[in-house]
Amino acid sequence: MKVILGGGLAGLSAALKFRDLDERSLLIERGDAPGGLARTFEAEGFRFDLGGHRLLTEDARLDALFRELLGSDLLRVRRKSSILLGGRYFDYPLRPLNALSGFGAFRSARIIGEYLYEKVRQRFGKEEALSLRDWVRGNFGNTLYEIYFRDYSEKVWGISCDEISSEWVSKRIQGLSLGKAISSALFRKRHGSERTLTDSFYYPRSGIGELPERLLHAARSHTTFLGSTEVVEIHHSDGLIRGITLLTPEGIRRVTGEDYLSTIPVTALLRALRPSPPEDLMERARTLRYRDLIVVVIMLDKDSVSDLTWLYIPERAVPFGRVHEPRNWSPEMAPDGKTHLVVEYFTNSGDDLWNMEDETISDITTGFLEALGIIGGEVVTGYRVLRIHHAYPVFDIHYKRTLQKIMDYLARFRNLSLAGRTGGFEYLNMDQAMLSGMNAAEEMGRRGFPELRCSTVLQPVAGQVSREP
Ligand SMILES: Cc1cc2nc3c(=O)[nH]c(=O)nc-3n(C[C@H](O)[C@H](O)[C@H](O)COP(=O)(O)OP(=O)(O)OC[C@H]3O[C@@H](n4cnc5c(N)ncnc54)[C@H](O)[C@@H]3O)c2cc1C
Known about the structure:
Layout: E1 2-5, H1 9-20, E2 25-28, E3 40-43, E4 46-49, H2 60-70, E5 74-78, E6 81-85, E7 88-92, H3 96-103, H4 105-123, H5 132-140, H6 142-157, H7 166-171, H8 177-187, H9 195-198, E8 200-204, H10 210-219, E9 223-226, E10 230-237, E11 240-248, E12 251-255, E13 259-262, H11 266-272, E14 273-274, H12 279-285, E15 290-300, E16 310-312, E17 322-324, E18 339-347, H13 352-355, H14 358-371, E19 380-393, H15 399-410, E20 416-418, H16 421-424, H17 430-447
Parallel strand pairs: 1-2, 1-13, 2-9, 6-16, 10-14, 13-20
Antiparallel strand pairs: 3-4, 5-8, 6-7, 10-11, 11-12, 15-18, 15-19, 16-17, 17-18
Helix pairs in contact: 1-10, 1-17, 3-4, 3-8, 4-5, 5-6
Protein backbone atom coordinates (compact mmCIF):
# COMPACT_ATOMS: atom_id res chain seq x y z
CA MET A 1 0.00 0.00 0.00
CA LYS A 2 1.12 3.55 -0.76
CA VAL A 3 0.90 6.01 2.11
CA ILE A 4 0.32 9.66 1.18
CA LEU A 5 1.08 12.32 3.79
CA GLY A 6 -1.09 15.41 3.24
CA GLY A 7 -4.47 15.65 1.50
CA GLY A 8 -3.98 18.87 -0.48
CA LEU A 9 -4.13 18.90 -4.27
CA ALA A 10 -0.72 17.20 -4.63
CA GLY A 11 -1.66 14.32 -2.33
CA LEU A 12 -5.12 13.94 -3.87
CA SER A 13 -3.71 13.93 -7.40
CA ALA A 14 -1.23 11.26 -6.38
CA ALA A 15 -4.13 9.18 -5.03
CA LEU A 16 -5.92 9.57 -8.36
CA LYS A 17 -2.81 8.45 -10.23
CA PHE A 18 -2.48 5.41 -7.93
CA ARG A 19 -6.10 4.56 -8.78
CA ASP A 20 -5.18 4.60 -12.47
CA LEU A 21 -2.25 2.31 -11.68
CA ASP A 22 -4.58 0.04 -9.72
CA GLU A 23 -2.62 0.67 -6.51
CA ARG A 24 -4.27 1.16 -3.12
CA SER A 25 -3.38 4.23 -1.08
CA LEU A 26 -3.96 5.69 2.36
CA LEU A 27 -4.33 9.48 2.41
CA ILE A 28 -3.56 11.15 5.72
CA GLU A 29 -4.73 14.72 6.25
CA ARG A 30 -4.62 16.94 9.30
CA GLY A 31 -7.62 19.02 8.23
CA ASP A 32 -11.17 17.75 8.60
CA ALA A 33 -11.65 17.84 4.80
CA PRO A 34 -9.40 17.44 1.77
CA GLY A 35 -7.91 20.42 -0.07
CA GLY A 36 -5.21 22.06 2.07
CA LEU A 37 -4.60 25.56 0.70
CA ALA A 38 -7.26 24.97 -1.95
CA ARG A 39 -10.22 24.61 0.42
CA THR A 40 -13.43 26.61 0.43
CA PHE A 41 -15.16 27.44 3.71
CA GLU A 42 -18.70 28.55 4.47
CA ALA A 43 -20.08 30.86 7.16
CA GLU A 44 -23.53 32.45 7.40
CA GLY A 45 -24.27 31.44 3.80
CA PHE A 46 -21.08 33.07 2.43
CA ARG A 47 -18.47 30.86 0.76
CA PHE A 48 -14.80 31.80 0.52
CA ASP A 49 -11.41 30.34 -0.46
CA LEU A 50 -8.21 30.92 1.48
CA GLY A 51 -7.49 33.81 -0.89
CA GLY A 52 -9.10 33.57 -4.34
CA HIS A 53 -7.86 30.55 -6.29
CA ARG A 54 -8.16 30.82 -10.03
CA LEU A 55 -7.71 27.65 -11.99
CA LEU A 56 -5.55 27.61 -15.11
CA THR A 57 -3.39 25.09 -16.82
CA GLU A 58 -1.39 24.75 -19.98
CA ASP A 59 -1.44 20.97 -19.65
CA ALA A 60 -4.08 19.44 -21.92
CA ARG A 61 -4.52 16.34 -19.73
CA LEU A 62 -5.22 18.44 -16.67
CA ASP A 63 -7.57 20.67 -18.61
CA ALA A 64 -9.51 17.57 -19.62
CA LEU A 65 -9.47 16.34 -16.01
CA PHE A 66 -10.91 19.64 -14.72
CA ARG A 67 -13.74 19.39 -17.24
CA GLU A 68 -14.39 15.75 -16.47
CA LEU A 69 -14.43 16.26 -12.69
CA LEU A 70 -16.44 19.48 -12.58
CA GLY A 71 -18.60 19.26 -15.73
CA SER A 72 -21.14 22.07 -15.91
CA ASP A 73 -19.99 23.33 -12.49
CA LEU A 74 -16.76 24.59 -14.07
CA LEU A 75 -17.30 28.27 -14.82
CA ARG A 76 -15.26 30.48 -17.14
CA VAL A 77 -14.60 33.81 -15.40
CA ARG A 78 -13.24 36.89 -17.09
CA ARG A 79 -10.45 38.50 -15.20
CA LYS A 80 -10.84 42.18 -14.36
CA SER A 81 -8.38 43.48 -11.81
CA SER A 82 -6.94 46.75 -10.56
CA ILE A 83 -3.90 47.95 -8.68
CA LEU A 84 -4.24 50.64 -6.04
CA LEU A 85 -0.92 52.50 -6.07
CA GLY A 86 -0.20 55.91 -4.58
CA GLY A 87 -3.91 56.58 -4.06
CA ARG A 88 -4.76 55.91 -7.73
CA TYR A 89 -6.44 52.96 -9.36
CA PHE A 90 -4.54 51.44 -12.29
CA ASP A 91 -6.02 48.93 -14.69
CA TYR A 92 -4.48 45.52 -14.36
CA PRO A 93 -2.88 44.68 -16.66
CA LEU A 94 -1.74 48.26 -17.17
CA ARG A 95 -2.30 49.94 -20.50
CA PRO A 96 0.46 52.33 -21.64
CA LEU A 97 -1.76 55.43 -21.53
CA ASN A 98 -3.21 54.47 -18.20
CA ALA A 99 0.29 53.92 -16.80
CA LEU A 100 1.56 57.20 -18.26
CA SER A 101 -1.25 59.25 -16.79
CA GLY A 102 -0.93 57.47 -13.46
CA PHE A 103 2.82 57.82 -13.07
CA GLY A 104 2.98 61.22 -14.75
CA ALA A 105 5.11 62.13 -17.79
CA PHE A 106 8.24 62.91 -15.76
CA ARG A 107 8.29 59.66 -13.80
CA SER A 108 7.37 57.59 -16.86
CA ALA A 109 10.22 59.17 -18.85
CA ARG A 110 12.55 58.41 -15.99
CA ILE A 111 11.44 54.77 -15.82
CA ILE A 112 11.91 54.34 -19.56
CA GLY A 113 15.30 56.09 -19.46
CA GLU A 114 16.53 53.86 -16.63
CA TYR A 115 15.23 50.78 -18.37
CA LEU A 116 17.05 51.64 -21.59
CA TYR A 117 20.21 52.44 -19.64
CA GLU A 118 20.10 49.02 -17.94
CA LYS A 119 19.57 47.31 -21.30
CA VAL A 120 22.66 49.03 -22.72
CA ARG A 121 24.64 48.20 -19.59
CA GLN A 122 23.66 44.53 -19.94
CA ARG A 123 25.28 44.46 -23.38
CA PHE A 124 28.61 45.24 -21.77
CA GLY A 125 28.20 42.46 -19.24
CA LYS A 126 27.37 42.97 -15.61
CA GLU A 127 27.86 41.51 -12.18
CA GLU A 128 25.68 38.65 -10.99
CA ALA A 129 22.66 39.79 -8.96
CA LEU A 130 22.18 37.77 -5.78
CA SER A 131 19.07 39.47 -4.42
CA LEU A 132 15.70 40.52 -5.78
CA ARG A 133 16.67 44.14 -5.27
CA ASP A 134 19.82 43.86 -7.39
CA TRP A 135 18.09 41.80 -10.05
CA VAL A 136 15.13 44.17 -10.46
CA ARG A 137 17.30 47.30 -10.39
CA GLY A 138 19.67 45.73 -12.90
CA ASN A 139 16.82 44.80 -15.24
CA PHE A 140 14.26 47.57 -14.81
CA GLY A 141 16.03 50.43 -13.05
CA ASN A 142 15.65 51.96 -9.63
CA THR A 143 12.44 53.96 -10.04
CA LEU A 144 10.31 50.97 -11.03
CA TYR A 145 11.93 48.98 -8.24
CA GLU A 146 10.94 51.63 -5.72
CA ILE A 147 7.41 52.36 -6.87
CA TYR A 148 6.29 48.81 -7.12
CA PHE A 149 8.67 45.91 -6.62
CA ARG A 150 10.13 46.88 -3.27
CA ASP A 151 6.97 47.48 -1.27
CA TYR A 152 4.88 44.69 -2.69
CA SER A 153 7.65 42.09 -2.51
CA GLU A 154 8.48 43.02 1.06
CA LYS A 155 4.81 42.88 1.94
CA VAL A 156 4.41 39.41 0.46
CA TRP A 157 7.64 37.89 1.75
CA GLY A 158 8.12 39.78 5.00
CA ILE A 159 11.85 40.20 4.44
CA SER A 160 13.90 42.91 2.84
CA CYS A 161 14.41 42.75 -0.95
CA ASP A 162 18.15 42.31 -0.47
CA GLU A 163 17.39 39.03 1.33
CA ILE A 164 15.01 37.64 -1.30
CA SER A 165 16.74 35.33 -3.76
CA SER A 166 17.29 36.73 -7.24
CA GLU A 167 17.38 33.23 -8.61
CA TRP A 168 13.78 32.80 -7.70
CA VAL A 169 12.71 36.18 -9.04
CA SER A 170 14.58 35.84 -12.31
CA LYS A 171 12.92 32.48 -12.92
CA ARG A 172 9.59 33.71 -11.68
CA ILE A 173 9.45 37.31 -12.83
CA GLN A 174 5.95 36.40 -13.96
CA GLY A 175 5.37 35.58 -10.30
CA LEU A 176 5.60 39.26 -9.57
CA SER A 177 2.85 39.74 -12.04
CA LEU A 178 2.12 43.30 -10.97
CA GLY A 179 5.67 44.24 -11.83
CA LYS A 180 5.34 42.41 -15.08
CA ALA A 181 2.11 44.25 -15.82
CA ILE A 182 3.85 47.54 -15.18
CA SER A 183 6.90 46.67 -17.23
CA SER A 184 4.87 45.30 -20.13
CA ALA A 185 2.62 48.37 -20.15
CA LEU A 186 5.57 50.77 -20.21
CA PHE A 187 7.91 48.80 -22.39
CA ARG A 188 5.34 46.90 -24.48
CA LYS A 189 7.30 43.71 -23.92
CA ARG A 190 5.87 40.49 -25.25
CA HIS A 191 6.20 37.74 -22.72
CA GLY A 192 5.31 34.17 -23.59
CA SER A 193 2.68 33.99 -20.90
CA GLU A 194 1.35 37.51 -21.19
CA ARG A 195 -2.07 36.23 -22.07
CA THR A 196 -2.45 35.24 -18.44
CA LEU A 197 -2.66 38.87 -17.48
CA THR A 198 -5.76 39.41 -19.55
CA ASP A 199 -7.19 35.95 -19.89
CA SER A 200 -10.17 34.35 -18.32
CA PHE A 201 -9.81 31.49 -15.90
CA TYR A 202 -11.75 28.49 -14.61
CA TYR A 203 -13.55 28.56 -11.32
CA PRO A 204 -15.79 25.89 -9.77
CA ARG A 205 -19.34 27.12 -9.16
CA SER A 206 -19.22 26.69 -5.38
CA GLY A 207 -15.58 27.58 -4.78
CA ILE A 208 -12.17 26.06 -5.40
CA GLY A 209 -12.79 23.49 -2.66
CA GLU A 210 -15.04 21.68 -5.09
CA LEU A 211 -11.94 20.51 -6.99
CA PRO A 212 -10.30 18.58 -4.10
CA GLU A 213 -13.71 17.16 -3.10
CA ARG A 214 -14.24 15.76 -6.58
CA LEU A 215 -10.67 14.49 -6.82
CA LEU A 216 -11.19 12.54 -3.63
CA HIS A 217 -14.50 11.22 -4.88
CA ALA A 218 -12.86 10.05 -8.12
CA ALA A 219 -10.06 8.26 -6.23
CA ARG A 220 -12.40 6.69 -3.64
CA SER A 221 -12.35 3.16 -5.07
CA HIS A 222 -8.62 2.90 -4.36
CA THR A 223 -7.94 5.27 -1.47
CA THR A 224 -8.86 5.58 2.18
CA PHE A 225 -9.01 9.18 3.41
CA LEU A 226 -8.09 9.71 7.05
CA GLY A 227 -9.12 13.27 7.91
CA SER A 228 -8.44 15.14 11.19
CA THR A 229 -5.35 12.94 11.43
CA GLU A 230 -1.86 14.29 11.96
CA VAL A 231 1.42 12.61 11.09
CA VAL A 232 3.45 12.97 14.30
CA GLU A 233 6.31 10.50 13.89
CA ILE A 234 7.95 8.80 10.94
CA HIS A 235 10.02 5.76 11.84
CA HIS A 236 12.94 4.61 9.76
CA SER A 237 15.88 2.25 9.73
CA ASP A 238 18.40 1.06 7.14
CA GLY A 239 17.33 3.67 4.57
CA LEU A 240 13.67 2.71 4.62
CA ILE A 241 10.60 4.28 6.19
CA ARG A 242 9.13 1.54 8.37
CA GLY A 243 5.92 3.14 9.59
CA ILE A 244 4.28 6.32 10.84
CA THR A 245 2.59 7.33 14.04
CA LEU A 246 -0.65 9.25 13.68
CA LEU A 247 -2.66 11.38 16.04
CA THR A 248 -6.29 10.60 15.20
CA PRO A 249 -9.54 11.73 16.87
CA GLU A 250 -9.59 8.26 18.47
CA GLY A 251 -6.02 8.48 19.74
CA ILE A 252 -2.57 7.37 18.60
CA ARG A 253 -2.39 4.91 15.70
CA ARG A 254 0.49 3.34 13.82
CA VAL A 255 0.34 2.55 10.10
CA THR A 256 2.80 0.92 7.74
CA GLY A 257 3.03 0.85 3.98
CA GLU A 258 5.52 -0.08 1.30
CA ASP A 259 6.06 3.41 -0.19
CA TYR A 260 5.52 6.86 1.28
CA LEU A 261 4.77 10.12 -0.52
CA SER A 262 5.08 13.26 1.57
CA THR A 263 3.29 16.49 0.63
CA ILE A 264 3.38 17.96 4.15
CA PRO A 265 5.84 20.82 4.82
CA VAL A 266 9.35 19.45 4.34
CA THR A 267 10.37 21.01 7.66
CA ALA A 268 7.54 19.12 9.44
CA LEU A 269 8.68 15.92 7.74
CA LEU A 270 12.21 16.39 9.09
CA ARG A 271 10.93 17.10 12.59
CA ALA A 272 8.81 13.93 12.55
CA LEU A 273 11.66 11.57 11.58
CA ARG A 274 12.69 9.01 14.23
CA PRO A 275 15.59 8.73 14.77
CA SER A 276 15.91 12.49 14.21
CA PRO A 277 18.25 13.83 11.52
CA PRO A 278 21.63 15.16 12.71
CA GLU A 279 21.38 18.34 14.78
CA ASP A 280 23.40 20.44 12.32
CA LEU A 281 20.89 19.63 9.57
CA MET A 282 17.98 20.47 11.87
CA GLU A 283 19.70 23.73 12.74
CA ARG A 284 19.94 24.60 9.04
CA ALA A 285 16.38 23.44 8.38
CA ARG A 286 15.12 25.94 10.95
CA THR A 287 16.25 28.72 8.60
CA LEU A 288 13.92 27.41 5.89
CA ARG A 289 10.77 29.44 6.40
CA TYR A 290 7.22 29.55 5.13
CA ARG A 291 5.15 32.72 5.04
CA ASP A 292 1.75 32.51 6.72
CA LEU A 293 -1.50 34.18 5.79
CA ILE A 294 -4.47 35.75 7.54
CA VAL A 295 -7.68 35.82 5.55
CA VAL A 296 -10.38 38.22 6.71
CA VAL A 297 -13.88 37.87 5.33
CA ILE A 298 -16.08 40.96 5.61
CA MET A 299 -19.80 40.22 4.99
CA LEU A 300 -21.88 43.09 3.66
CA ASP A 301 -25.57 43.86 3.39
CA LYS A 302 -25.43 44.98 -0.25
CA ASP A 303 -25.37 43.08 -3.50
CA SER A 304 -22.09 44.33 -5.00
CA VAL A 305 -19.00 46.36 -4.15
CA SER A 306 -17.27 46.34 -7.54
CA ASP A 307 -16.97 44.30 -10.72
CA LEU A 308 -13.33 43.38 -10.02
CA THR A 309 -11.97 39.87 -9.67
CA TRP A 310 -8.95 41.17 -7.77
CA LEU A 311 -7.66 44.40 -6.28
CA TYR A 312 -3.91 44.50 -5.51
CA ILE A 313 -2.61 46.95 -2.93
CA PRO A 314 1.19 47.15 -2.95
CA GLU A 315 1.38 50.21 -0.69
CA ARG A 316 3.29 49.71 2.51
CA ALA A 317 0.89 51.90 4.50
CA VAL A 318 -1.97 49.44 3.95
CA PRO A 319 -1.40 46.27 5.96
CA PHE A 320 -3.09 43.86 3.52
CA GLY A 321 -2.01 43.05 -0.03
CA ARG A 322 -5.00 41.81 -1.94
CA VAL A 323 -8.79 41.88 -1.87
CA HIS A 324 -11.34 39.92 -3.87
CA GLU A 325 -15.10 39.73 -4.06
CA PRO A 326 -16.12 36.06 -4.46
CA ARG A 327 -19.53 36.93 -5.96
CA ASN A 328 -17.66 38.16 -9.04
CA TRP A 329 -16.07 34.73 -9.40
CA SER A 330 -19.31 32.78 -8.97
CA PRO A 331 -22.73 34.16 -8.02
CA GLU A 332 -23.22 31.17 -5.74
CA MET A 333 -20.51 32.34 -3.35
CA ALA A 334 -22.84 34.79 -1.55
CA PRO A 335 -26.52 34.71 -0.52
CA ASP A 336 -28.95 36.61 -2.78
CA GLY A 337 -28.67 40.38 -2.43
CA LYS A 338 -25.48 40.21 -0.34
CA THR A 339 -21.77 40.21 -0.99
CA HIS A 340 -18.48 39.81 0.88
CA LEU A 341 -14.86 40.82 0.54
CA VAL A 342 -11.93 38.49 1.21
CA VAL A 343 -8.84 40.36 2.38
CA GLU A 344 -5.37 38.77 2.47
CA TYR A 345 -2.68 39.70 4.99
CA PHE A 346 0.76 38.16 4.35
CA THR A 347 2.16 37.56 7.79
CA ASN A 348 4.14 35.30 10.11
CA SER A 349 2.47 33.17 12.74
CA GLY A 350 3.16 34.59 16.16
CA ASP A 351 3.56 38.21 15.08
CA ASP A 352 1.41 41.00 16.52
CA LEU A 353 -1.35 40.75 13.94
CA TRP A 354 -1.47 36.95 14.19
CA ASN A 355 -2.05 37.18 17.94
CA MET A 356 -4.75 39.87 17.81
CA GLU A 357 -8.37 39.10 18.62
CA ASP A 358 -10.43 38.33 15.53
CA GLU A 359 -12.71 41.26 16.24
CA THR A 360 -9.75 43.68 16.32
CA ILE A 361 -8.43 42.35 13.00
CA SER A 362 -11.89 42.72 11.49
CA ASP A 363 -12.16 46.32 12.78
CA ILE A 364 -8.73 47.20 11.35
CA THR A 365 -9.72 45.66 8.02
CA THR A 366 -13.04 47.47 7.83
CA GLY A 367 -11.34 50.74 8.80
CA PHE A 368 -8.81 50.46 5.94
CA LEU A 369 -11.46 49.36 3.43
CA GLU A 370 -13.45 52.47 4.32
CA ALA A 371 -10.43 54.77 4.27
CA LEU A 372 -9.46 53.46 0.82
CA GLY A 373 -13.01 54.08 -0.40
CA ILE A 374 -13.56 50.40 -1.19
CA ILE A 375 -16.60 50.23 1.05
CA GLY A 376 -18.73 53.12 2.18
CA GLY A 377 -21.56 53.15 4.64
CA GLU A 378 -22.57 49.53 4.02
CA VAL A 379 -23.70 47.57 6.98
CA VAL A 380 -21.11 44.97 7.89
CA THR A 381 -23.22 41.99 8.91
CA GLY A 382 -20.45 39.66 9.98
CA TYR A 383 -16.83 38.64 9.63
CA ARG A 384 -14.57 35.62 9.77
CA VAL A 385 -10.82 35.49 10.37
CA LEU A 386 -8.78 32.46 9.28
CA ARG A 387 -5.10 31.91 10.03
CA ILE A 388 -3.24 29.75 7.53
CA HIS A 389 0.20 28.25 8.13
CA HIS A 390 2.71 27.48 5.35
CA ALA A 391 1.01 29.57 2.65
CA TYR A 392 4.21 30.49 0.79
CA PRO A 393 7.70 28.99 0.84
CA VAL A 394 10.12 31.88 1.45
CA PHE A 395 13.00 32.00 -1.01
CA ASP A 396 15.70 33.93 0.76
CA ILE A 397 19.23 34.16 -0.60
CA HIS A 398 20.30 31.07 1.38
CA TYR A 399 17.34 28.78 0.76
CA LYS A 400 18.72 26.85 -2.17
CA ARG A 401 21.79 25.55 -0.40
CA THR A 402 19.76 24.66 2.68
CA LEU A 403 17.13 22.88 0.63
CA GLN A 404 19.78 20.97 -1.28
CA LYS A 405 21.30 19.75 2.01
CA ILE A 406 17.88 18.59 3.16
CA MET A 407 17.20 16.81 -0.13
CA ASP A 408 20.61 15.15 0.00
CA TYR A 409 19.79 13.85 3.46
CA LEU A 410 16.28 12.64 2.51
CA ALA A 411 17.65 10.88 -0.58
CA ARG A 412 18.83 8.06 1.71
CA PHE A 413 15.24 6.86 2.17
CA ARG A 414 14.58 4.55 -0.73
CA ASN A 415 10.82 4.37 -0.25
CA LEU A 416 10.13 8.08 0.34
CA SER A 417 9.17 10.68 -2.30
CA LEU A 418 8.24 14.33 -1.94
CA ALA A 419 5.76 16.33 -3.97
CA GLY A 420 3.69 19.52 -3.92
CA ARG A 421 4.18 23.09 -2.90
CA THR A 422 4.76 22.77 0.82
CA GLY A 423 6.19 19.26 0.44
CA GLY A 424 8.81 20.20 -2.14
CA PHE A 425 9.30 23.81 -0.93
CA GLU A 426 8.45 25.16 -4.35
CA TYR A 427 6.32 28.06 -5.52
CA LEU A 428 3.78 25.89 -7.34
CA ASN A 429 0.36 26.81 -8.59
CA MET A 430 -2.51 24.35 -8.24
CA ASP A 431 -2.00 22.66 -11.59
CA GLN A 432 1.73 22.34 -10.97
CA ALA A 433 1.14 20.90 -7.48
CA MET A 434 -1.27 18.39 -9.03
CA LEU A 435 1.22 17.43 -11.72
CA SER A 436 4.00 17.01 -9.18
CA GLY A 437 1.77 14.64 -7.16
CA MET A 438 0.84 12.67 -10.26
CA ASN A 439 4.43 12.47 -11.49
CA ALA A 440 5.68 11.26 -8.13
CA ALA A 441 2.94 8.61 -7.96
CA GLU A 442 3.75 7.44 -11.47
CA GLU A 443 7.45 7.13 -10.61
CA MET A 444 6.61 5.19 -7.46
CA GLY A 445 4.18 2.93 -9.30
CA ARG A 446 6.62 2.26 -12.11
CA ARG A 447 9.76 1.61 -10.14
CA GLY A 448 8.66 0.77 -6.65
CA PHE A 449 11.47 2.76 -5.06
CA PRO A 450 12.07 5.85 -7.19
CA GLU A 451 15.53 7.32 -7.35
CA LEU A 452 14.50 10.94 -7.67
CA ARG A 453 12.65 11.69 -4.51
CA CYS A 454 11.22 15.10 -5.23
CA SER A 455 9.37 15.31 -8.48
CA THR A 456 10.01 18.95 -9.30
CA VAL A 457 12.31 20.46 -6.73
CA LEU A 458 14.84 23.01 -7.96
CA GLN A 459 13.73 22.57 -11.54
CA PRO A 460 11.79 25.28 -13.35
CA VAL A 461 8.41 24.01 -14.49
CA ALA A 462 7.98 24.40 -18.23
CA GLY A 463 5.68 27.22 -19.25
CA GLN A 464 4.96 28.22 -15.70
CA VAL A 465 2.87 31.29 -15.19
CA SER A 466 1.84 33.13 -12.10
CA ARG A 467 -1.61 32.64 -10.58
CA GLU A 468 -1.00 34.48 -7.37
CA PRO A 469 0.50 37.69 -6.08
C1 LIG B 1 -3.41 32.94 -0.87
C2 LIG B 1 -3.12 31.93 -1.93
C3 LIG B 1 -3.67 32.10 -3.18
C4 LIG B 1 -3.41 31.18 -4.19
N1 LIG B 1 -3.99 31.38 -5.41
C5 LIG B 1 -3.77 30.50 -6.38
C6 LIG B 1 -4.38 30.69 -7.64
O1 LIG B 1 -5.11 31.67 -7.88
N2 LIG B 1 -4.15 29.74 -8.62
C7 LIG B 1 -3.33 28.65 -8.39
O2 LIG B 1 -3.17 27.83 -9.30
N3 LIG B 1 -2.73 28.45 -7.19
C8 LIG B 1 -2.93 29.34 -6.19
N4 LIG B 1 -2.34 29.14 -4.97
C9 LIG B 1 -1.45 27.98 -4.79
C10 LIG B 1 -2.23 26.69 -4.42
O3 LIG B 1 -2.96 26.90 -3.24
C11 LIG B 1 -1.22 25.57 -4.19
O4 LIG B 1 -0.39 25.42 -5.34
C12 LIG B 1 -1.83 24.19 -3.92
O5 LIG B 1 -3.00 24.27 -3.17
C13 LIG B 1 -0.76 23.37 -3.21
O6 LIG B 1 -1.22 22.06 -2.95
P1 LIG B 1 -0.29 21.06 -2.12
O7 LIG B 1 -1.05 19.80 -1.97
O8 LIG B 1 1.04 21.00 -2.75
O9 LIG B 1 -0.06 21.76 -0.71
P2 LIG B 1 -1.08 22.00 0.54
O10 LIG B 1 -2.39 22.48 0.02
O11 LIG B 1 -0.32 22.87 1.45
O12 LIG B 1 -1.26 20.53 1.11
C14 LIG B 1 -0.48 20.01 2.15
C15 LIG B 1 -1.44 19.29 3.08
O13 LIG B 1 -0.72 18.65 4.13
C16 LIG B 1 -1.49 18.75 5.31
N5 LIG B 1 -0.58 18.55 6.45
C17 LIG B 1 0.40 19.37 6.89
N6 LIG B 1 1.03 18.85 7.94
C18 LIG B 1 0.46 17.65 8.17
C19 LIG B 1 0.69 16.62 9.11
N7 LIG B 1 1.66 16.68 10.05
N8 LIG B 1 -0.10 15.51 9.07
C20 LIG B 1 -1.08 15.40 8.14
N9 LIG B 1 -1.34 16.36 7.21
C21 LIG B 1 -0.57 17.46 7.23
C22 LIG B 1 -2.10 20.13 5.24
O14 LIG B 1 -3.24 20.23 6.08
C23 LIG B 1 -2.43 20.23 3.76
O15 LIG B 1 -3.74 19.79 3.49
C24 LIG B 1 -2.57 30.07 -3.94
C25 LIG B 1 -2.01 29.89 -2.67
C26 LIG B 1 -2.26 30.82 -1.68
C27 LIG B 1 -1.66 30.61 -0.32
